[in-house]
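I'd like us to work through together how a protein chain folds, taking it slowly. To get us started, please write out a protein record for me. Go ahead whenever you are ready, and we will take it from there:
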Amino acid sequence: MSTENSRPTPAPGALLLCRADPDSVAPVAQLLRERMLLTSAGTGWSVLVPEGKPWLEGGEPVDSVLTGWATALAVGASWPVLALWWDADRSGCTLAAGFRRTVGYVWLANGTPVGEDEAMRTFAARLGLDPVLDTQPLYDLTKPDPTAKARTRMLGLLAVLARAGVALPAGLAPGEPADRLRGVARVQPDVQRIEWTGWRGAVRTELDALERGRLGPWLPWAGTPRARALATAQLVAGLPLTVWGLYRRGGGWIVAGSLLIAHGALGLLYDLSHPRD
């Protein structure tokens, strides 16, 4: 019997890959209000390992939770977020980048692809992959292959991302038990524990990080039309997203919507209380 076929059925699990260094990811990740472990995952990449299992506690499927988390992380940052998730029946990935529509792909447990081939082209473009060398290997992951299970497909995806600098620590891989993922993350030399410390501290930390980065002209106190337009767009996008999350009882979507509303309201209130000359 092959090693692939002899592996036990995986329990639900997830990883969040962010195309940014850990110090840039930490303040944004805190706003998810979830306990996570953060460590580097190669040149210019970081990985977040959830310490909890909200997909087991709230009844929401792991892919929905991870889509909400990835969306919440990406809307407040200038870098994309790739969620990797798996359960007993499926494995998949979801890419979030700013206000763009999320794109994802799914494989059944036996490796059967379920998705649109065009998603892989979008992956390559938004992650800055080589349109010639990397797109074809991504397309290969969408073709039937009776020897490739879902875990093999996910490892193939990581192999392509390695060309863009992704290098997960040994032991952090799709399909691994959640306890092993946490154990591996905890012993990394640069690991950071992400915990919720309250809105005031979290927002202040995040704004300090953004101001040091490339988003200074978009921040509320910049007094620019771009800052006001961004705040308005965040508020308009956050309200229906939060309502959708409440309707679907989706914690991840509620977090994403609440984060957008908080950012937008903060920007507009600051602008109104500091009139421009």
User: Anything to note?
Assistant: Residues 3-192 form one domain.
